[in-house]
Write a structure and sequence with these properties.
single chain, 215 residues, seven-stranded mixed beta sheet, 19% helix, 4 helices, Purple Acid Phosphatase, chain A, domain 2, alpha/beta
């Protein structure tokens, strides 16, 4: 797996964007991501939609490589850790997470995170509606900003649409950033892309396996 990085300044902090759908905040030793949607593939299969079993393991293997690469002390999931009802994907994830018992795990509750707090606590996650570190505020969905605060969110699954030759277009996931808001890409590969601009005055940091593009 090829990890490409790009440092940006956001809220007087240096954040490292990656082409693997996470950002790293070195000052807090925190790996930050959103929208993993554990359980989505099994949920679809239960409803008669054929999707490969390998999707979940691919996501978890990517996350494992990123944890090993950045060696964080904190893992901050900015919402939608899980997708729907408890299913066999949860068991796979719970067993996989046991290797990271020493990692401080924080979940910012998203619209899909509907289980009781005690369930997340049993997995080692501290849950919050929003969390604030220095001037950075973590919340799952975008909110009205206030002065002197800088917001990191998920939920949107942002992407960009790039015109190619003829009538062809290429869609890429991206980080969307303006002066006070940063929207994370969905971590799971089993998600769609929202290519509408949801923020004003944004810079899109789109990415491929080999590069991060500022658009």
């Amino acid at each position: 797996m090829n990890i490409v990085t790009k440092d940006i300044h956001f809220g007087n902090e240096v954040l490292t964007l990656t082409n693997q759908r996470v950002l790293f905040w070195e000052a807090q030793e925190a790996l930050i991501l959103s929208d993993i949607h554990i359980g989505k593939t099994a949920h679809f299969r239960q409803h008669g939609i054929a999707v490969p079993d390998a999707i979940l393991m691919n996501d978890l293997q990517r996350l494992q490589v990123l944890i090993e690469n950045f060696n964080p002390k904190k893992l901050i999931v900015v919402g939608d850790l899980f997708h729907a009802e408890y299913n066999q994907n949860f068991d796979v994830f719970i067993q996989w997470m046991q290797q990271f018992d020493d990692l401080e795990k924080i979940l910012i509750r998203g619209n899909h995170d509907r289980f009781p707090t005690r369930f997340y606590e049993s997995l080692g996650f501290l849950t919050k509606k929003q969390a604030e570190y220095n001037a950075l505020v973590f919340v799952h969905d975008t909110v009205k900003v206030s002065a002197a605060k800088y917001y990191i969110s998920g939920h949107i699954h942002p992407g960009v649409r790039i015109k190619m030759k003829g009538r062809q277009y290429l869609k890429l996931p991206c980080f969307q950033v303006n002066s006070q808001q940063l929207i994370l890409p969905a971590f799971s590969l089993f998600t769609g892309l929202n290519t509408r601009s949801t923020l004003e005055n944004i810079v899109n940091y789109a990415f491929t396996e080999d590069a991060i593009l500022e658009l």
